[in-house]
Amino acid sequence: MKILLIGKRASITHWLEDAGAAFRAEGHAVKVALVRRPWLNAQVEAAFIEPLAHAMAKTAARFAPDLILALGGYHSPAPFLRRLAALPGRPPLAGWVGDIFDDTARETAALYDLVAYTDSGLLERHATLGFTSRAIFLPHAANLAAAPSPAVRAPRMVFVANATPGRRAAVEAIAAPIEVYGPGWVRTPPHDMHPGRLPHAAVAGLYARHLAALNVRNERNVLVGLNQRSFDPCLSATPLVTDDHGDLERCFDPGSEVLVWRDVGELNAAYDRLRRFPDVAARIGEAGRRRVLAEHGYAHRLATLRAAL
Predict the structure, then answer these.
(1) For residue 17, what pLDDT is reported?
(2) H and E: helices and strands count for the chain
(3) pLDDT score for 36
(4) How many CA atoms lie within 13 A of 229 on its CB side?
(5) Which CATH architecture has domain 144-295?
(6) Cβ-contact 172, 188 below 8 angstroms
(7) Which of 48, 55, 147, 233 could be stapled to 207 by a disulfide with Cβ–Cβ 3.0 to 4.6 Å?
(8) Which residues contact 177 (CB under 8 A, 6 or more apart)?
(9) Is there a contact between 157 and 170 (Cβ–Cβ < 8 Å)?
(10) Cα separation of 141 and 226, whole Å?
(11) What pLDDT shows up at residue 275?
(12) HSE toward the beta carbon, residue 222, CA cutoff 13 A
């Protein structure tokens, strides 16, 4: 299958790069077209948006894909999508959306044949706002080809994320030391903080070298959905300690495949249990790994998309 991926390179989630690598590993021919060039001044880029959109459409026509998939679909500029939507004999055009949106996304949504939402709350919002394009629930995925090698584990939990008010409050409430990596963090005893952005290639190794991985969703752009951090640690059989949200049971069995917390007491109890019983940590981590390998790779998401289209 030939897939044209459109999106933003070098985002903190590495969505575009991971999806491209995973699809290629499955034997698909993949071409990437950028909707944002991080090395180019945004004002300069905006001034040339129509020529850039024209160039993207020409790239698409030459490649002749079987599917055009926009990752972070509502971040794709309308001129790009209008050109792609108008291509004669074009393949299906789908957007995969993972962030909160409002009515300003209406025009963009209408250009897609299908909008896939990583969050069922966003799918509900699509209907509430009266968007007319077809829509489905399609969670994030893990790049199964990126599983790290086994490593000796430090007896601590690790958290890799941007700092937000909700995430800071969760970390401050954890009694035993953890390791925290990401932009915006400041010294928070007793934890070891590593502020700044990590190379994406280093993240998988961090998960593999720690007892467990913490997950706290970004309250600014998620309603009830799972993020990439809900899946990636599982590739190294690292048990996930995640805040509770509505879509969790659609993807995992809480308690046996991931540990779930709803308040500070449950968060500390889960961490304490894993530190006291490494065999429990290993069992949960392995169960999570098997579930992700069986159901949560990009090949699984592509199959769902193709069936919906």
Answers:
(1) 93
(2) 11, 12
(3) 66
(4) 23
(5) 3-Layer(aba) Sandwich (3.40)
(6) yes
(7) 233
(8) 156, 190, 191, 192
(9) no
(10) 10
(11) 97
(12) 25
Please identify every stretch of the chain with a pLDDT value under 50, giving residue numbers as ranges: none
Task: Work out whether the CA dihedral 37, 65, 18, 140 comes out positive or negative.
Answer: positive
Measured CA to CA, the distance from residue 202 to residue 210 in angstroms comes to: 13
pTM attached to this predicted model: 0.94
* Residue 16 · residue 8 · CB < 8 Å: yes
CB-side exposure of 12: number of CA atoms within 13 Å? 13
Other Cβ atoms less than 10 A from the Cβ of 253: the count is 12
Q: Write the CA distances from 13 to 82, 108, 308, integer angstroms.
A: 26, 22, 25
What is the token pair recorded at 23?
């699809």
Which residue do the tokens 């893990």 mark?
142
Beta pairing, strands 154-160 & 210-215 = parallel
State the virtual CA torsion across 149, 150, 152, 158 in degrees, nearest 10: 80
Indicate if 144-295 has the same CATH topology as 2-138.
yes
Tell me the residue ranges of DSSP E strands in the chain.
2-8, 29-36, 67-71, 93-97, 114-117, 134-137, 154-160, 179-182, 192-195, 210-215, 240-243, 259-261
Please state whether beta strands 114-117 and 179-182 pair in parallel, antiparallel, or not at all (unpaired).
Answer: unpaired
Phi, psi of 154 (to 5 degrees): -75, 145
Within 8 A by CB and 6+ apart from 289, the residues are 234, 235, 236, 237
What is the dotted CATH code of the domain comprising 2-138? 3.40.50.11930
Give the C-alpha separation, 268 to 130, whole Å: 42
Residue 168's pLDDT is 97
Burial class of residue 59 in the structure, from the number of CB atoms within 10 Å of its CB (0-12 exposed, 13-18 middle, 19+ buried)? middle
Q: What size, in residues, is the chain?
A: 309
32 pairs with which residues across the strands? 5
* First CA to last CA distance, the chain: 14
Pair of tokens at residue 152: 């000796």
All structural domains of the chain with their residue ranges: 2-138, 144-295
